[in-house]
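Course exercise 7: structure representation. Students receive a sequence record and must write out the corresponding structure in token form. The form below is the worked example handed out in class, using ABC transporter ATP-binding protein (634 residues). Read each field label carefully; the graders check that inputs and outputs are placed in the correct fields and that the protein name is recorded exactly as given.

STUDENT ID: A-19
EXERCISE PROTEIN: ABC transporter ATP-binding protein
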Amino acid sequence: MPHDTPHHAAPSRATAQDPEPADVGQPAQIRRILRLFRPYRGRLALVGLLVAASSLVAVASPFLLREVIDVALPERRTGLLALLALGMIATAVTSSVFGVLQTLISTTVGQQVMHDLRTAVYAKLQQMPLAFFTRTRTGEVQSRIASDIGSMQATVTSTATSLVSNLTAVVATVVAMLALDWRLTLVSLALLPAFVWIARRVGRERRRITTQRQKQMAAMAATVTESLSVSGILLGRTMGRAEALTREFADESRQLVDVEIRASMAGRWRMATIGMIMAAIPALLYWSAGVMFQLGGTPPSIGTLVAFVSLQQGLLRPAVSLLSTGVDIQASLALFQRIFEYLDLRVDITERPDPVEPGTRARGEVGFENVTFGYESGARPILSGIDLTVPAGGSLAVVGPTGAGKTSLGYLVPRLYDVTGGRVTIDGTDVRDLSFAALARAVGVVSQEAYLFHATVAENLRFARPDATPDEIEAAARAAHIHDHIASLPDGYDTVVGERGYRFSGGEKQRLALARTILRDPPVLVLDEATSALDTRTEQAVQRAIDALSAGRTTITIAHRLSTVRDADQIVVLDRGRIAERGTHAELLALDGRYAALLRRDADGGTRPAVDGVGDLADPADVAPRRPAVDATP
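STUDENT ANSWER:
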């Protein structure tokens, strides 16, 4: 399919929008993560209270056990024994209830934070210019939203609560241990600095591996998205590359397996060593008590020793969990960093703080006033010195060789790109001054690659106007000469069009796109080679729909087949980004210049007019990036 702009010419200006690290310093990144939870600080405070209460209640149980061993049993006080036993049961029940409540609240808060992140990333990507999507693989974008944020679920739903819960439990347990016997407490905590050092080493290692894992998952997701789409399957099978694609996917998957194994085993032996040492500490405590007795000191009572060992064993779980949580947080920082990279992308095309909101429907006069457009400062611009006026309800055709800047000129009207010099106006108002909503109401775009969602025909048409009635949808389809075909389908307007509309032919998809634009009813219409990919018979059917759509509207047609533009009020020939000729069809034929040469070439069946001085292809650096395969109807 012919394109006005080759796809290999990536815009250098957009390169500045590659994701960059948002915060280099880890403390700054942690502060940014904490700000995500700020809207929910009330519920988090309640979680903190529940955690503190649960930890305090749990710590009471060893003290009750000491009283059982040292007082109730030796003195045979059955009443006291019953009360102590009931107290131990009550502490267990209360602690469990508090745990369930804190899990419910913290999980709710965590899921809300994940929702906020997903929505923020999606909204940010909706604001990004087309150049970003022409150089970013779809699978990479999907991986950031689905895989990266999904992998953060444990962190934002349970890790924060686990951190607070285990920290509170450790502090409460250590205080209780000091209250029982400070000497045994020192023995228990002697190795704590070594444990912390090991955990930090493991955390840094897991963070590095997590970054590698997410990049590999994104690469595999991109491969799946590209090769298992309808277009990818068709290309792979017709080119005999199905087995090769399978081998490439297997290589990607094998690399992911290696990274996943390293991620699972990173620091596993070190953390296991910590667990084994802490599990052996009770034996050290019994030995220490014996040494105290041998040296003539005052050994702890049996009840105190049993209660202390119970506390120490109770300390084992939260302490190891706390160290593991620290390791998990280090790994999660890599995920947060990838999300923050997208949230910090620079948005070049923004709405003014006080945009113009016309109170009435736009008349549709389009003006190009000394317009210059390019992606890189210092390089030759794609468009230079464009001065044009298209009266309201008039028609302009833009023709020229590949790379002349035709599509770039058309995309400046709906502000898919911003001019670098001069201005583009609608009814005398700079498009940069209009609100996005007003601009979307004023301008509709139909490209040669009509994009349809995997939904019903009615839902695809209603995308242009969600409040459209069935009668309005049918009227738009009739105007686009597609109603009869839709009505002949078993499910009519409830027919699912399939992935990218592949249940319909190219001409049918194009007419559906035109019907969608008719339903939107914009006063200005940009047709970007809307029939260039169709056969002659289908083109005639689509052209009838275009004529119906263009009636009464300001129409800018970017044409490759010159047979579609003969009746335009004004025809402009672009060459290397400048206006080479302008006039009506008859005037340009009489001039016998570039347009006449283009017409002769078109009549001979050629596809690229590069003779008779029409103009050579522009340098790759001077052409726009590949257009996305979408119908950009606002």
